[in-house]
Amino acid sequence: MISRVVATDVQLFERAARTFGATNGGGQAYLESTGALAFVASDRDRIFGWCWGYHLIRPDSSSMLYLHQLEVAEDHRRRGIGRALLWAFMRAGAQAGATRMFLTTRETNAPARALYDSLGGGLAAHGPTVNYWFLLNP
Questions:
Q1: pLDDT tens digits in sequence order for the chain, 138 residues long
Q2: Domain N-acetyltransferase: where (predicted)?
Q3: Which of 93, 102, 111, 112 has the most other CB atoms within 10 Å of its CB?
């Protein structure tokens, strides 16, 4: 079952974070942040997948989605869970007014790229993408 995760579901979100090796303890702050958008694939006892990102409002009043992470447990891959999570994320964003979505993945991540290609995603037409990270600790 795919469930949208909201601030009252922090325990489910943090279980998903632990399942996929993410840092634990920041779920409440994330879920309460503006634009937070998250989904979990689970049954009563086990979490099979999750995705999370943001609905971003732009200065020109348009908006877009940023998908930060999509992950499915290895023993549950190739069953449509990733596709269902991604569709739920995109549908929620579209309902909120987003007209585009972006994400990054490794060039070598063939399964993810196949999923994104199959759902109509296109590679950036503006040339190669270079990502920079900045540490903001004083």
A1: 999 999 999 999 999 999 998 766 788 999 999 999 999 999 988 999 999 999 999 899 889 999 999 999 999 998 999 999 999 999 999 999 998 888 887 778 878 778 878 777 776 665 566 665 655 566
A2: 1-138
A3: 93
What are the angstrom distances between the C-alpha of 15 and each of 96, 103, 134?
26, 23, 28
Domains of the chain: 2-118 (3.40.630.30)
What does each C-alpha distance from 35 to 48, 63, 72 come to in angstroms? 24, 10, 23
**CA distances in angstroms from 126 to 29, 83, 114, 122, listed in the order given:** 34, 26, 21, 11
